[in-house]
Model the fold of this input.
Amino acid sequence: MVSRKTLVIGILAALLILLFPFWFTFFIAGSPTPLFTVYNSDPISHTVDVDIIGPDNTSIFSDSRTLGPDEHWSHKKPLWMVPRSFFAWAEDKYTVYATLDNNTTKKMTINYHLWNDASIHIYNGNMSIGEITV
Done:
């Protein structure tokens, strides 16, 4: 009969082996990137509204911020996005809407992924949005 100590050690070893790819990925790629980042490269201040909608039309994030010249703003990914991005069934996408000075709105749809984020740049009174993947 197997002792309780041997059984516990066996279970812990199995969990360590099963979770190795998950932890090793963090070791190689580093911590997850932000959900989005806004950069104001303009010499004047701008107000930016960021709305992020999930695949089931639920709000993931919604906020507004006034950025001065050469300021940036970012927001961490919610913890529940971590496991969703590791499994093949999670081909979910989220949509980022960015509005500059209550005037111009741009949108972009990207996959759930720990090492990508929506990058919003403001320059010369214009705004662009793109995806950065590490």
